[in-house]
Amino acid sequence: MLKFPGLVFFILILNFPLSGQQDTLIFKNGDQLIGEVKSMDRGVVLIETDYSDSDFKIKWVDVKEIYSTTRFLISLYEGARINGTLKTLSADKISISADDGDIFEVGLSEIVYLNGLKSKFWDRVDASIDIGLKVTKANKLRQFSIQSALGYLADKWSTDLYYNDLLSSQDSISDTRRKDGGVNYRFYLPRDWYASPELTYLSNTEQALQSRVTAKLSLGKFIVHTNNLYWGVSAGTSLLKEAFTNDAESRNSAEMLLGTEVNLFDIGDLSFLSNLSVYPSLTEKKRFRSDFKIDAKYEFLDDFYIKFNLTLNYDNQPAVVGKETDYVYGISFGWEL
User: Fold this and answer.
1) pTM score, two decimals?
2) Banded model confidence at residue 18, pLDDT cuts 50, 70, 90
3) Which domains does the chain have, with CATH numbers?
């Protein structure tokens, strides 16, 4: 029979390997958190602990030191992508041990992305859906809307799917409807370059557009890639197939594609995402299209926020009865815990 000191020693031996596998974050205020660092993206580090059902989300700028045995996919601000482990050497100095044996010493702020190479499937998934319904007695206005998105982030590529639908009907007025959706793949290349095939769909009554299917292929680069700002530019080509609600002849065309995207996050209480794509036609004389989007969120009084979104489509050669411009915008106020 084990005596008490022997039992304590036995328990310690059993628990030592488990504790040795834990990651540690030490914050600028001296606090520390022990668990499993799963990822860091857009200035937020995600860590799982044994004593909480929910993962902790912590601002990367609040981290002073990190110690981990986890293998990560690590991205640096100048575009390098490294598979390996990391640990703090001194104040704001991190040592990265790459799988190929190379050692890198970088500042903490130079690390802009981490992803555990053994992350579970659902840890890499982002999904959202918003459904709205509005009914008024006056003029029998009925409005239905849906916004949905699904994304997956792998070690060297990511994909995003989305679908949005807005239907509005009212007495004595023709129904108004706008649908758009798409799937995008992004393959990450060295030095912050990326290749991106994309397939999109758009239908809206404002431009007499029954359907517009666009296949795109572009090559892009992040000009700025930090813990609070992404800015990328891209160029490529797109193939367009359109059908119209006024029985006009369908159109097939080829276009150039020039785009830019700005994503600001952790800028005080503001987050901001905007992208612009322009499409000079290669097969239709003087035709020019553009797509512009903005999503912004401002938080105030701790738990309250304002959201603004805008989607704008422009075509200088629309269908015969269609209009050159179609847009959807929304402003909302909210509260969250």
Assistant:
1) 0.72
2) very low
3) 23-119 (2.30.30), 125-335 (2.40.160)
